[in-house]
Amino acid sequence: MIKDLTEQEIHQKYYNEIYQHFEQEPYAQFLGIKLLELKEGTAMAELEIKDHMLNTHGTVHGAIIFALADYVFAAACNSYGKTAVGLNTVVNFMAAGMKGSRIKAIAVEEKKNNRTSWYKIRVESNGELLASMEALAYRKNSYFVPVE
């Protein structure tokens, strides 16, 4: 029964299903986001910047940076197999991403309880911080993996 498993045990037992859930996310596939790492409360992904992802200044569009940050946020807060949805995000853009670059985002869980969880996300390119995001998730009662 689910009551007998900790969230960490659910993550381990259903890791493949959880990973596939996010690897097959339609919008991430459309953009070309690649999930590199998924652990309990953390996620890392990257994206190669293409011409259609640039703004009129020739740098990476903020929506692309946000999409990558939001993707790792979603993966991290759902990494326990329990359905979680975003409540709030605050993004600070600090540097421009460039055409042809690869950007990477890392989400780290800072605090979690039964109903909410809070994350810090970094978006980087070539070791430079492009953006930081703080994000709050609401944790539902339901699971998206076939828990017993």
TrEMBL record:
Keywords assigned by UniProt, alphabetized: Hydrolase
Molecular function GO labels: acyl-CoA hydrolase activity
Pfam families: 4HBT
SUPFAM superfamilies: Thioesterase/thiol ester dehydrase-isomerase (SSF54637)
Residues in Thioesterase domain copies: 57-128
InterPro entries hit by this protein: Acyl-CoA_thioesterase_PaaI, HotDog_dom_sf, PAAI_dom, Thioestr_dom
PANTHER family membership: ACYL-COENZYME A THIOESTERASE PAAI
NCBIfam families per the UniProt record, alphabetical: unchar_dom_1 (TIGR00369)
Protein's name according to its UniProt entry: Hotdog fold thioesterase
Originating species: Niallia endozanthoxylica
Source taxonomy: Bacteria, Bacillati, Bacillota, Bacilli, Bacillales
